[in-house]
């Protein structure tokens, strides 16, 4: 996985750009997209299992497939006042997660994005799992987006 | 269906949890059939010697020039020896594609991918920091209404 810094930075950057045109991407909903962007990595609970001597990875691997992540988002959105909205913002975060994970080098197969309909694995095999250059790039891009969108917003206010 | 009452939401949540659990069971029982190369489950059950397999594991060291890796496969520790000169450190994670030889060896290695241990720990640390930051941000913009049993915007 790219680390959560990458996932969250990408989700935030996307929301920051969309906020220029759509008021719905306010800070509260942006936080939901950011939370959604790490939802598929709920599978990392397996790391704790591993420390305790249990191999849970394959049992909960569905969490790291779109269908499982969408179900998790559905379950979580039940805990929000505006459930549909919460679900959609979490969903957007989840989609950004898979787009980033597609970049990863996968020796075996890749992610079965269309499971359970199709098991075909997808990967672009571009970035190693433990790469940190992608983190630096994501943070720099987020900073640039912050500065540019701030400048655009202040210019719009002056008009 | 309107999901305003807690009981309806609990029922819907339970249905979604059951569907998710069903998918988890389906995936666990079926995924081996759909892997590009067989892995530990098949190796332990049938030992398909001479076939190309894909195994992962933690580096334990070298033995007679062969890379020794170990993996916890459903509670069973499996040790493999890999014919590879790829530079690795202790505790690095490797994923190997190669031909399964006799006595848990991987020969004619086609591909080795190494994830260095320190980079992995650094990745976990970065992710932990983000989790804490995200928790802070979430509680800043959302609060839980115990009476209505849902989050609402602050």
TrEMBL record, chain B:
<keyword id="KW-0812">Transmembrane</keyword>
<protein>
    <submittedName>
        <fullName>Uncharacterized protein</fullName>
    </submittedName>
</protein>
<dbReference type="InterPro" id="IPR058927">
    <property type="entry name" value="OB_2TM"/>
</dbReference>
<feature type="transmembrane region" description="Helical">
    <location>
        <begin position="120"/>
        <end position="138"/>
    </location>
</feature>
<keyword id="KW-0472">Membrane</keyword>
<keyword id="KW-1133">Transmembrane helix</keyword>
<dbReference type="Pfam" id="PF26045">
    <property type="entry name" value="OB_2TM_halo"/>
</dbReference>
């Amino acid at each position: 996985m790219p680390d959560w810094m990458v996932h969250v930075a990408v989700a935030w950057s996307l929301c920051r750009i969309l906020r220029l045109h759509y008021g719905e991407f306010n800070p509260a909903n942006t936080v939901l997209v950011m939370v959604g962007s790490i939802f598929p990595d709920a599978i990392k609970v397996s790391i704790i299992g591993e420390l305790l001597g249990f191999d849970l990875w394959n049992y909960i691997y569905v969490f790291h497939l779109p269908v499982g992540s969408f179900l998790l988002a559905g379950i979580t959105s039940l805990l929000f006042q505006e459930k549909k909205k919460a679900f959609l913002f979490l969903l957007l975060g989840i989609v950004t997660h898979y787009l980033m994970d597609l970049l990863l080098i996968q020796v075996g197969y890749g992610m079965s994005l269309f499971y359970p309909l199709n098991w075909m694995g997808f990967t672009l095999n571009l970035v190693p799992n433990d790469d940190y250059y992608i983190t630096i790039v994501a943070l720099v891009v987020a900073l640039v987006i912050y500065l540019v969108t701030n400048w655009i917003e202040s210019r719009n206010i002056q008009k | 269906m309107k999901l305003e009452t807690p009981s309806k939401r609990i029922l819907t949540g339970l249905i979604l949890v059951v569907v998710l659990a069903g998918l988890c069971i389906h995936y666990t029982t079926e995924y081996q059939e759909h892997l590009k190369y067989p892995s530990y489950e098949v190796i332990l059950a049938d030992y398909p010697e001479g076939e190309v397999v894909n195994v992962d594991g933690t580096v334990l060291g070298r033995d007679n020039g062969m890379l020794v890796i170990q993996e916890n496969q459903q509670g069973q520790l499996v040790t493999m020896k890999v014919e590879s000169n790829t530079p690795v450190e202790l505790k690095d994670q490797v994923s190997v594609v190669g031909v399964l030889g006799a006595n848990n060896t991987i020969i004619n290695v086609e591909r080795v991918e190494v994830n260095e241990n320190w980079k992995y720990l650094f990745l976990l640390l970065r992710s932990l920091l983000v989790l804490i930051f995200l928790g802070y941000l979430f509680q800043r913009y959302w609060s839980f209404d115990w009476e209505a049993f849902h989050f609402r915007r602050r």
